[in-house]
Amino acid sequence: MGGTKVALALGNAAGELLARDIFPTPQSGDSGRDLDHIAKRARSLAERHEIAWRRIEAAGVSLPGPLDREAGILLNPPNLAGWANAPVGRQLESLLGVPVGIENDANAAVLAEWRFGAGQGANDVVYLTMSTGVGGGIVLGGRLQRGIQSSAGEVGHLPIEWDGECCACGMKGCLEAYIGGAAWSRRLAEQTPADSGVARFAAGAAPTPEHVVAAAREGDAFALGELDRFNHYLAWGIVQLGFVLAPEVVVLGTIPSAAGEALCLEPVRAKVRERLWPALQDTLRIEASGCGDRLPDYAGLSVAIATAQEAAD
Question: Taking the CB of residue 135, how many other CB atoms lie within 10 A of it?
């Protein structure tokens, strides 16, 4: 679930996606009414694909935070009007008749990449997303790390410039202020030359990181400089994670996945190798998301699988 759309998927523990549905996030201003609509869409999805509801063992929900996972409550999401303190878990359990688990979207994403994506086969995986902000999820020793109030993995707020750019969180110098999509878009609005490829791809609209990637593929000097800056700060963040967590795999979503090997992944790997000890370099892989566009589906499915396992225990 996000501020603009809901992705529903029916799947199994082997990672087969049996059915899916995408629709605009209902925002009536009443979370109870909206959850009722979502539950009806879920039951309808199963019915349309002739999947008997009695076969459903559990449901998993990937949500924007902050949330209280144990209580199943979405606390105060900035982009969902009327959803403050919504009892998502309890209400969906009542409507669906199955155990329901909730996780913040970054935690759900790392579970998806660990089970079905670029982190398969590894015990220690970090997932990073650089969409509006910078989110992170951590699996260590084959277990999701949540921390207090599910706050583990707030990689976007690692300080990388002590008195640097202002971050949306109110602090200064956070990684998110340098590589988050919203912060980068603000920078591009101020810095993009009118005669650059980025401006050409933007075609009069506000320039975005997607325009930077497109222009960089054509060799535009401004775009390549912006990507080099992005790669520098992203590598800086990964080096900190390397020394603190020593993961086997760091999975990169959104902007790095879109930019690809030559423009982002290889330069980032090279920069990280310059600053990590050889023993850590030799065991660390930096990869693009393996789930791709289906990450939302696999994220919800992975939470459902974990919820079914917990219910069985």
Answer: 26
Q: How far apart are CA 67 and CA 163, in angstroms?
A: 30
Q: What is the pLDDT of residue 225?
A: 98
Question: What is the total count of domains within the chain?
Answer: 2
Segment 259-284 mean pLDDT: 97
Q: What is the pLDDT of residue 226?
A: 98
Q: Are residues 154 and 240 in the same domain?
A: yes
Alpha helices in 104-151 (DSSP H): 105-116
| Residue-wise pLDDT tens digits, 167-218 | 999 999 999 999 999 999 999 999 999 999 999 999 999 999 999 999 999 9
Question: CA Rg, the chain, in Å?
Answer: 20
Question: Do residues 208 and 234 both lie within one domain?
Answer: yes
HEC string of 197-227? HHHHHHCCCCCCHHHHHHHHHCCCHHHHHHH
On whether both 279 and 173 belong to a single domain, the answer is yes
Give the CATH number of the domain where residue 22 resides.
3.30.420.40
Asked if the structure places residue 35 within a domain, the reply is: yes
Instruction: Examine the pLDDT at 65 and tell me if it is beyond 90.
Output: no
Task: Please write down the long-range contacts of 274-280, taking CB distance under 8 Å and 24 or more positions apart.
Answer: 275/235, 275/239, 276/239, 276/242, 276/243, 277/243, 280/242, 280/243, 280/246
Joined together, the tokens standing for residue 68 give 């209280």
Q: Are 102 and 96 spatial neighbours (Cβ–Cβ below 8 Å)?
A: no
Q: What distance in Å separates the CA atoms of residue 184 and residue 189, rounded to the nearest whole number?
A: 9
